[in-house]
Amino acid sequence: MSTPFPTIGILGGGQLGKMMAAEAIRMNVEVRLLSPKDAGPMRPYAETQVGDWTDPEVLRPFAADCDVVTVESEWAPADAVAEVLPDNAALWPSTKTLSLIKDKGVQKQHLVDAGCPVPEFARCETLAEALDAAEALGYPVVLKQYRGAYDGYGNATADSADELRQAWPDLAAGDGAMVETFADFTRELAVQVARRPNGNQVVYPVAYTEQRDHRCHAVEVPADIDDDIAKKARRIAQRSVDAVEGVGLIAVELFEMPDGRVLVNELAPRPHNTGHYSIEGAATSQFENHVRAVLDWPLGDPSLRTPVAVMVNVLGRREGTPPKTTGLSRALETDGVTPHIYGKPDVRPGRKMGHVTALGADRADTRKRAEMAADAIEL
Questions:
Q1: Residue 103 to residues 92, 107, 249: CA-CA distances in angstroms?
Q2: Using CA atoms, how far apart are residues 255 and 189, in angstroms rounded to an integer?
Q3: Fewer CB within 10 Å, N side or C side of the chain?
Q4: What is the pTM of this model?
Q5: CA dihedral defined by 187, 106, 166, 188, rounded to 10 degrees?
Q6: DSSP secondary structure code for residue 261 in this structure
């Protein structure tokens, strides 16, 4: 008797869930998505559900008959899923991995204990502790909320005690916040690692990430860095992923420092914006390798298809609904560029609405084409 294709459940209905689902469906893997609200990107898929994803009565039928459940976000209620998951099903990443990553203070301390290099930091319960820590570390410092931060939200740079006092009420929850020394880095880098339950893994090329207004604007792969820095970044990324026993695609954001050190900024236990280039740019995309890893299937080749790949995010420029495809036809006129529009139902300034990827042989030309195409799309 032939073995039926597996079923994968995805907690989340945003663009990451959509792109995971697309790769799974291509391999005839049945997909179910569950989201607490209609996020928009999930709409093209038949097996979708909107409901209270913390309610066992919602989660139980969702998880029934799933071979594996995975998450689009580290804040998905994995603990609640684990309570109702069938005995023969798996949850990847595990609740242990998610608990080590989703709290930035816990994550940083665990990485330190595992011997991974990170910027100096202090976990502070009170404003007084934060002021003392900032004084010891030296201004400027970065104040980070422990949970729920993304795309620049949940962080604040403080150049003085007054600025730290102003930021504290918004970012400190009942258990405080983290104060971290400002990393005066040369470059921000990122490495994607796909890892199976048995520890077998593949590592993507080191990417250079360019931030604007605390959001990722562009990603260039491979990063234009010395070979020894690239080797160090990949090695540290693998060590970090092993430390949290990650399964699936784990993104490791890094700082390249002027003295040659490479420090871990933070981990994301799922496909990541800095790896979107891999859909067209790599032999196996980060989304396909995530699906392969959580199903414990052999991992695919992460190497680049062309000498250079550049991804540029398409951000919202206005407030309102629904988004319009103004300029998409102009973007499609650009050679060697592939646009991705996520399908979010409403737009606001700075919100990630899509991305474009350009492939080529020359870094400057490839970057120029990606920027032109992204700039043409007005959402």
A1: 18, 6, 19
A2: 6
A3: N
A4: 0.94
A5: 10
A6: -
